[in-house]
């Protein structure tokens, strides 16, 4: 029996398979003592909740069309349904499927990151898995296989990172695959393959970064692609990749020495890992002008934000430039401070976070050593940079790149804005907010004690978010909450 069938029975039936049996069936490395603690059960059948990956699906549009009860009229009535404190910083965005809210903490020096499965009903811990290393980006769920995938990086950066496959119902380890480089981008699952970006290509590490494709069932590496084919020349994939049904498309970072055509832009790979096309945003490969965020596919175009402050839309089939928009004229050499956010759209407005602006100075919790210049969350042990005064912007732009509205913030958006038609949900500074996509006006807000780094998710059962202090929040409309607890 294949692992696919075992996992499917685990997810949709009543059969419970232990970690040892699942690991043996997949032919992956066994783990003698699973780092799992069980704490009850979540919702099972009947839930329509599904936000299984970064920005909703592999197009990365961030729009959940199944949520119809949140409108500009109803959203001001959102109320806190439950709050759970996990006791450690949260940077990774949560993902949801069928009553399971998967949250990954940043990790302490003693135990590293912890993967939690929380019940969407009341927030209790269903299971948790201790990783003994740090995880900084969003996990992915494959509901059909009944698996959760999460990547990490070792505390000593020259050691390898790993991609883990965990059983969605129990949290037990199914397989673990070593990956060279730092796993900092959100994982993607498509057609039985798990894709992980490999980063760490800046001096002094200059790790050979790129993309690795891993068999979802067995956990073995199918192929690996590098931004720079030369070892120790750097190159990185920092952000979430997208999939158009034929190509894996993603942003790339700088190299350390040699100029290469696949750095500082976007690349599309064929199913065998060969290059279909590449687009360069900044021609100097060694310039620290990464595409640090994820890419979004919409209307035949690939959209992405560069650290040079420009927003690009290129043809998804050829990589040819369709249009570009300068969203931050201050993001120029040598600062390259244009931001790391990933764009999303509801089909009328594109929303994206843009980076550091002139006059900003580092404030409490900067930690990056960059003073008032460029911030780089991806190199900080704790992504908690906050700048005094006017720092970053959340911008709404048209489908042709014209700026429609702006909201300013002290921290910075490095994820995405979660969307339902006409409304965007995002953490701005110390508030969860819902904004009107037509004009950027706030429709609803909820204050927190801590700044917010993780992106939000919106599903039929409610709106979920997490703050930097390790608190997870569930919001819902009063009527839907009442129905759920009858």
Helix-strand layout with pairing:
Layout: H1 3-12, H2 19-26, E1 36-38, E2 50-51, E3 79-85, E4 95-97, E5 100-104, E6 114-119, E7 125-130, E8 140-142, E9 147-152, E10 161-167, E11 173-179, E12 188-190, E13 193-198, E14 210-215, E15 221-226, E16 242-243, E17 248-251, E18 265-269, E19 275-280, E20 296-298, E21 301-305, E22 310-315, E23 321-326, E24 344-345, E25 350-354, E26 361-362, E27 387-388, E28 392-397, E29 403-409, E30 418-420, E31 423-428, E32 431-436, E33 442-447, E34 457-459, E35 462-466, E36 471-476, H3 478-484
Antiparallel strand pairs: 1-7, 2-4, 3-36, 4-5, 5-6, 6-7, 8-9, 9-10, 10-11, 12-13, 13-14, 14-15, 16-17, 17-18, 18-19, 20-21, 21-22, 22-23, 24-25, 25-28, 26-27, 28-29, 30-31, 31-32, 32-33, 34-35, 35-36
């Amino acid at each position: 029996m294949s692992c696919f069938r075992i996992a499917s029975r685990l997810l949709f039936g009543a059969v419970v398979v232990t970690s040892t049996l699942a690991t043996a069936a997949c032919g992956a490395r066994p783990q003698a003592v699973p780092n799992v603690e069980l704490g009850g059960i979540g919702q099972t059948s009947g839930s329509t909740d599904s936000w299984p990956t970064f920005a909703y699906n592999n197009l990365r549009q961030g729009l959940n069309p199944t949520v119809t009860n949140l409108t500009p009229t109803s959203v001001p009535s959102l109320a806190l349904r439950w709050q759970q404190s996990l006791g450690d910083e949260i940077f990774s965005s949560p993902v949801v499927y069928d009553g399971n809210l998967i949250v990954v903490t940043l990790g302490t020096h003693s135990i590293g990151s912890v993967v939690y499965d929380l019940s969407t009903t009341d927030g209790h811990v269903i299971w948790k898995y201790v990783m003994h290393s740090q995880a900084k980006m969003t996990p992915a769920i494959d509901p059909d296989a009944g698996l959760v995938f999460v990547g990490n990086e070792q505390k000593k950066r020259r050691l390898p990172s790993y991609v883990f496959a965990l059983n969605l119902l129990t949290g037990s380890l199914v397989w673990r695959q070593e990956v060279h480089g730092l796993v900092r981008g959100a994982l993607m699952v498509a057609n039985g393959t798990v894709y992980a970006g490999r980063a760490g290509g800046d001096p002094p590490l200059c790790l050979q970064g790129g993309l690795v494709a891993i068999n979802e069932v067995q956990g073995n590496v199918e192929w690996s692609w590098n931004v720079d084919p030369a070892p120790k020349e750097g190159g990185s994939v920092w952000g979430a990749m997208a999939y158009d049904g034929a190509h894996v498309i993603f942003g790339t970072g700088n190299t350390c020495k040699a100029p290469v055509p696949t750095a500082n832009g976007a690349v599309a790979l064929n199913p065998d890992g060969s290059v279909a096309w590449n687009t360069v945003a900044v021609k100097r490969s060694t310039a620290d002008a990464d595409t640090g965020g994820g890419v979004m596919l919409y209307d035949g175009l690939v959209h992405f934000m560069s650290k040079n402050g420009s927003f690009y839309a290129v043809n998804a089939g050829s990589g040819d430039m369709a249009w570009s928009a300068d969203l931050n004229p201050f993001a120029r050499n040598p600062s390259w401070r244009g931001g790391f956010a990933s764009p999303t759209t509801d089909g009328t407005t594109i929303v994206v976070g843009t980076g550091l602006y002139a006059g900003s100075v580092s404030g409490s919790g900067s930690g990056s050593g960059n003073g008032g210049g460029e911030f780089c969350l991806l190199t900080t042990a704790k992504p908690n940079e906050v700048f005094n005064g006017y720092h970053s912007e959340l911008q709404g732009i048209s489908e042709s790149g014209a700026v429609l509205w702006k909201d300013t913030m002290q921290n910075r958006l490095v994820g995405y804005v979660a969307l339902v038609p006409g409304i965007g949900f995002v953490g701005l500074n110390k508030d969860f907010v819902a904004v009107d996509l037509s004009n950027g006006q706030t429709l609803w807000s909820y204050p927190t004690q801590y700044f917010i780094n993780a992106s939000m998710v919106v599903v039929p059962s409610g709106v979920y978010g997490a703050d930097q202090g390790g608190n997870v929040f569930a919001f819902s409309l009063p009527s839907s909450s009442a129905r759920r607890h009858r």
